[in-house]
Amino acid sequence: MHLPMDAIRPSSKNHPRRNRTMENQFNRHHGAKSRTFLPGQAVWAKDYRNSKEKWTQCKIVRRSGKVIYDVNVQSSIWVRHANQLRHSYLPKRQSNDIPLDILLDTFELPQSVPAACRKQIKAKKEGRMRRSQRRRKPTSVLQVDPHHTGIIFKGEVLDG
To answer: Is the pTM here over 0.85, yes or no?
Structure first.
């Protein structure tokens, strides 16, 4: 026996069964990935602040839905979909700078640093910025005379 409410919210008996084979084939074809995260796990979350999309490292606080997670970012809680999270395989670091000696050892490069690089490293440590030595031409002002049909540029009248 069907009631009028069944039209609005049909019973689960009327739903077709999921075709797992077709679903798996679709996911393989389109590169779908199952993303699950555990509380306390370090992840990257999409950051939409300042009109820029970037990724910020954070920790999962809890799962609040099938694909919705609460994440702790710098002592604030963000709500993110699993598609807006990525696994983090690197430990959390304060700085993105890798010391030069680690890079040299990793890639087995010689320890001698060219003089130009030494100057830049020294200037960076001292807090001085490197300035260009190029000579710049002074700017010339474009003057528009409303009474002429032409434009005055560097004292010459150009017909337009």
So the answer is: no
